[in-house]
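queue> holo job accepted (phosphoric acid mono(formamide)ester)
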Amino acid sequence: MKHLINTADFDRDEIEALFARAKKFKEGYVVKTLEDKLVITIFFENSTRTRSSFEVAAKRLGAEVVSLDISKSSSSKGETLFDTAANLDAMEPNAIVVRHQNAGVPKILSNYVSCPIVNGGDGAHGHPTQALLDLFTILEHFPDPEGKKIAIVGDIKNSRVANSNIELLSRFGLEITLVAPPHFMPRIKAYRKTHYLHEVIDDVDILMSLRTQTERHTNQIYASLKDYATDFCITKELVGDRDIMIMHPGPVNRNIDIDDAMLADPRCKVLEQVKNGVFVRMAVLETLID
Ligand code: CP
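queue> job finished
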């Protein structure tokens, strides 16, 4: 049985097969391969995109979906995470999608259940299906990604999206530059780093903006989001008429991460990422569920 905890859980051949399947789904291929299957989603952290995307994906493939409302679950009565997982597992689901504020929870849960666990985001650790849908979107625009240059911009240190994308995109040959103020820059050494967007703007094919993860800051170590935006907001004025693809995993802080004009520009692929997420997650669920 296979789980999806990290992007590294799929090798290149498996990812290419996933993307071929996702492409067919995007082209309109309809199949009910998960009829009679049950997918449970448990989101201990808020989500707009990931949870609904998994649920739409499962339903399009014919699966039944049960979503545990954490605020109304027995977690709020003191039941441990492991007992919650064991009890859900006793209902014999075919997959459980879990999001948790603590890094490592999906991996630990995978030892307590008898179905695939899909990581829907764990703390600042990983968000594998986000990175997969990001790569799928990049490949639609750059079928040969080898040597393409991407700048990941923002609160990289606290971002599970950045972690998963750094692993996955570098494996597919993209050249990554990390752009962040010192307090949001991770300590990893292997990548080019800068504190200044203007140092990369003439040399990138893709800009991936990230949200400032205020919920993961133990104390505020920067003056204000407005000050941050002065240096790191992706504005139409900054991008000008350059041929750069703009990405963001969402939720976007408008005019902090990306400005209104750039969000409305056809070079901005934020909603295309969301659309592709359903097809990629259909392929993921179909692959993991027997
Ligand atoms: N990209 C992403 O994880 O968005 P949600 O938090 O809305 O799921």
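queue> The chain has two domains: 7-127+275-288, 128-269.
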